[in-house]
Amino acid sequence: MIEPGLKPDEEPLGDLTVRTIAMPADTNANGDIFGGWVMSRMDSAGGIAGVDRAQGRVVTIAVEAMTFIRPVKVGDVLSVYTHVESVGRTSMKIHVEAWAKRFRTTLHEKVTDATFTFVAIDEEGRPRPVPPLPGA
């Protein structure tokens, strides 16, 4: 099944950063996986990408344009991809996509995406510079 408006050859943007399985304890009353569970995995993946780019501690300061496209079901394997979009002096915007490999199938669908903003901090929690992107 291909999402309306998407090309059949659409692939995740960025690097595979987190991969996990959706379990029954992560469901809401409808039997779908909580959106907050998915968002938490996306925040963790963005944090991993942020730490790599900043070469140290980062904190999430904003989430923009979170779009839930499809539900995640029990047994789906959730793969979260990250791509550093831009780097400022102390902050960075990281595009995060979550894709589900549907349980017992080969179907791989995008279920949500968002842009997370992280700030690099020092050991005292103060903002610190982020190394610029290559070629910037």
Describe this structure in words.
The protein is 15% helix and 39% strand. The chain is mainly beta. The N and C termini lie far apart (39 Å).
Indicate the percent of residues in helices: 10-25%
Q: How are the strands ordered across the major sheet?
A: 1-3-4-5-2
Shape: elongated
The number of helical runs is 1
Q: How can the largest sheet be summarized?
A: 5 strands, antiparallel
Radius of gyration, taken over Cα atoms and rounded to an integer in Å: 16 Å
List low-confidence stretches.
Answer: 1-6
Q: Helix/strand/pairing class, anyone?
A: mainly beta
Strand content: 35-45%
Strand runs, count: 5
Mean pLDDT, rounded to whole units?
92
**N- to C-terminal distance:** 39 Å
Helix and strand element order: EHEEEE
Entry keywords:
single chain, about 140 residues, mainly beta, 1 helix, 5 strands, disordered N terminus
Short structural description:
By secondary structure, the protein is mainly β. Helix content is about 15%, strand content about 40%.
